[in-house]
Amino acid sequence: MAIEVFSGTSIPRELTTAAMEFLWAKWRTLQATGGLTLQRLTEESDCVLRTNSAHMMPVGDDFIYIYVGETIQHAAGENRTGTLLSANKNPLAKEFAAVYRQVVQRMQPAFVRFTGTRSQNGQLWQRLVMPIAIGDGAVCLFIYSELISHQMEVYDQLFRTAPDAMIIACPMVNDVGHTTDGWVTMMNDRAREVLKFEGSIGNLRLSQVPQFAGIDFWGRIYAPKASAAMAPLSTADFDIELMRFPHVFGLRLRPREAVVQVTEPVSLAPLERARVEGPTPWITGSYTP
User: Fold this and answer.
1) Cα separation, 200 vs 213, whole angstroms
2) What is the DSSP secondary-structure string of 30-68?
3) pLDDT at position 285
4) Which of 17, 55, 179, 286 places its Cα 20 to 30 Å from the Cα of 124?
C-alpha cells in the first residue's frame, strides 16, 4: 500500500473540495499575517470541519492524537484520542508519520491521497495536513480528511451510455398500493433515441410519454418480492422489462420487431393463366420485311 503526497504552495485544483480550498487559502492568509491559530483557522466556515478533522502533536519521533472527530472515528472503527500514531495498526501509519514529520520540519501543509483498508469501490480518502505553531517551539497539526466517492460519476456514465434503452422512475401509488404512474428521474441516451425524446425530464411523468400513454398500471412495485425481480410489460412499440429497486423502478425497453406479412402467390390453372396472359406468340423461321 502507498500514499500520494503533494507538498508546496498549492494543491491540484482538480482535486480540491470546497472545504479543502477554504482551509488551504485561509491557512496561507493567516500564516502570512501572523494570526494563525487553530480557532481562527476553523471559524467562520460553512463547511463541516470539526467532525472530519483530527489534531495531533509531535512526541519525539511519534505523534499523539489530542482530538479525533466523529467522522474519522467512524472510519477508523475506534476513537484514537490520547493514543500514539505508532500504536495505530493501520498499515499506512508509518507513511503518515513520515509526512507529518516533514510538515513539522518545513512548517508547510501537505495534501495526501490514499485508499483506506475499509474503503468501498470507487472511494478515495483525501487529507490536508496543516501545521500551527502554538508557542515555545511546539506545533499542532490540524488534519482534515474527506472520503471522496467516484461511484456516482462512474455509474452515471455507465447508465447514460448503456446499449439498452432504460428509464428510472419514482412510483406514484394509489390508495391500494398500485403504481399507476411515475416521475421520470433518469433516462439514458438510448431511451431518448428510441422514444424520439429530446426535451427535459424535469416534472415529467411516464404517462406524458406518448409511447406509455396507454399504461395505467405498472404493478405493485413495493410487493414483497426480491429487489431484482422483473415483470414483463408490452406496448405496441416495445417489450418492457420492469426492474424493481427499493425506492424506484426501472424500465428496460426492447423495440418490437416489425412483422412483415407475405402473401403466397396463387397458382393458376393453365387455362385460367392463358386467359389472363393471352395467347403466346410462337415465331418460327425468319422474317424479312
Assistant:
1) 18
2) HHHHT---HHHHHSS-SS--GGGEEEEEEETTEEEEEEE
3) 45
4) 55
Where along the chain do its domains lie? 4-149, 158-255
Phi, psi (deg, nearest 5) at residue 95 = -70, -40
Res 121: pLDDT: 65
Residue labelled with grid coordinates 472520503: 147
Phi-psi region of 193 (alpha: psi -120 to 50; beta: other; left: phi over 0): alpha
CB 14 within 8 A of CB 111: no
Q: Does domain 158-255 have CATH number 3.30.450?
A: yes
Closest CA to 245 of 151, 169, 153: 169
Contact assessment for residue 78 and residue 70, using Cβ atoms and an 8 Å cutoff: no
Same fold, 4-149 and 158-255: yes
Q: What is the pLDDT of residues 187-245, one digit of tens each?
A: 999 999 999 999 999 999 999 999 998 888 887 655 555 444 455 688 888 899 988 88
User: Is the pTM of the predicted complex or chain greater than 0.85?
Assistant: no
Average pLDDT (146-163) is: 88
Between 3.40.1280.10, 3.30.450.20, 3.90.1300.10, 3.90.180.10, what CATH number should domain 4-149 receive? 3.30.450.20
Contact 147, 119 (CB under 8 A): yes
Backbone phi, then psi, for 185, in 5-degree steps? -110, -25
Separation of alpha carbons 27 and 41, rounded Å:
6
CA distance linking residue 217 with residue 242, whole number of Å:
12
pLDDT of residue 289: 44
